[in-house]
Design a protein that fits this description.
The chain has 397 residues and is of the alpha+beta class. The chain contains 14 helices and 17 strands. Strands 8, 9, 10, 11, 12, 13, 14, 15, 16 and 17 form a 10-stranded mixed sheet that branches. Helix 2 packs parallel to helix 3 and helix 7 packs parallel to helix 8.
Length: 397
């Protein structure tokens, strides 16, 4: 009787912890749910909103969110919008001017060219919204119809986290620093904030400013994994550091699963990733391809304890070129929730095995994948080499 009572008590406590955590840290998928939450965040704001995104498109979804932002500005809420000049290059001037005329403070992160620098390898890749230092959405979801989906088309597969905890204040401070160009080159360790029984940290990656928190967190998680690594990866081409950590984990017998793009908005990168499939399979990695829409997610779970979601792709461009931001969550409940979502995705994927790979791997396909791999790696090298040159210029003695 006492044993059964203790089990019931522990189960009740676990359910309470899970419910408690969900108040502070919530998993969000791309689609209508994400944009409803974004609208609610904007509509509830009383003082200040920061929206930072790589892509903001002039489509139904973009206009829907723009309308909410304009209404917030009319309520005398300070609205700050930071867009990447390359990612949002297609946004009409009239659209941007309309936002400004409605009182929104709008800035584009670095033009492609300036007098002294070539910027194409260094992009502002954030996907963040935060209001009143209380509520935030952070992940990999841009503002465009393709992330919302339609009746006939699935939204691009992507994730975000809604934060209703002190981490939102930290995130708003960081967004303000980026908007007002107050970024510091000092490397300050990320802080873990309490969120119910979970711990939440905001991770930055900006190699030029000596911030490699996301890359460090992934590497450490792989190195210290005890049982399992599961990743949703778009544009998946790990550089030397992450690849070594991956391989060591596989050699130690860690179950490693990757969910990759069967359909991609950048086919060259997808083929470059396919070139690595044989080596992945030789390392006993399980590969699943999602073919219902484009894979754009950047998320991982390790040992059902540690999770991360954000803008950071597992490739050299995110490690050394772009400005990225992720959230890390230390919580068994959140990890299990994300892991369950991954399982649902996997159930709708095609598994790549050595047999299925042989069926598709004709001579011309292999050659095309190899050429794609060489082209993509060379392009990433060039794009990340340019920020390295700027680093040397700024910091050489």
């Amino acid at each position: 009787m006492d044993h059964r009572y203790a089990l019931r008590k522990r189960s009740k406590t676990a359910l309470q912890n899970a419910a408690d955590n969900s108040k502070y840290v919530e998993l969000v998928r791309s689609g209508e749910d994400y944009f409803l939450r974004l609208e609610k965040l904007i509509d509830k704001a009383e003082k200040e909103i920061h929206l930072q995104t790589y892509i903001f498109e002039n489509d139904e979804t973009g206009n829907r969110i723009a309308s909410c932002l304009k209404k917030a500005a009319q309520r005398k809420v300070k609205v700050y919008v930071l867009l990447d000049a390359y990612g949002s290059a297609a946004l009409p001037n009239s659209f941007a001017q309309d936002l400004v005329q409605h009182g929104i403070l709008l800035r584009f992160f670095s033009p492609l060219f300036s007098l002294n620098n070539f910027y194409i390898g260094r992009r502002m890749h954030h996907k963040i919204a935060v209001a009143d230092e209380k509520m935030a959405l952070i992940g990999g979801i841009n503002i465009a119809d393709k992330y919302h989906g339609t009746q006939d088309e699935e939204p691009w597969l992507d994730y975000a986290v809604q934060l209703n905890c002190p981490a939102a204040k930290n995130l708003q401070i960081l967004c303000s620093d980026y908007f007002f160009k107050k970024g510091s080159s000092k490397k300050i360790p990320p802080v873990l904030h309490s969120a119910g029984s979970a711990l939440v940290g905001i991770l930055q990656n900006d190699w030029l400013q000596q911030k490699t928190e996301v890359c460090d967190a992934y590497t450490n998680a792989f190195i210290h994994a005890e049982k399992e690594i599961v990743i949703v990866g778009s544009y998946f081409l790990p550089g030397n550091r992450l690849a070594k950590a991956f391989k060591k984990a596989c050699k130690r017998g860690i179950r490693t699963t990757v969910i990759l793009a069967g359909i991609s908005d950048v086919p060259l990168v997808r083929r470059a990733t396919e070139h690595l499939y044989s080596s992945f399979l030789d390392g006993h990695m399980r590969i699943f391809e999602w073919n219902k829409s484009v894979v754009h997610g950047k998320a991982a779970v390790v040992d059902n304890k540690w999770s991360t979601i954000g803008s950071f792709n597992l490739n050299s461009l995110s490690c050394y070129g772009s400005i990225e931001m992720n959230v890390e969550v230390h919580s068994g409940e959140f990890a299990e929730n994300l892991r369950a979502d991954f399982e649902m995705v996997i159930s709708q994927c095609s598994e790549i095995t050595k047999g299925s790979l042989r069926q598709r791997a004709g001579l011309f396909n292999k050659l095309g994948n190899w050429i794609s791999y060489q082209m993509v790696r060379t392009t990433m090298l060039l794009l990340t080499f340019l920020p390295h040159l700027r680093f040397l210029k700024n910091y050489r003695l």
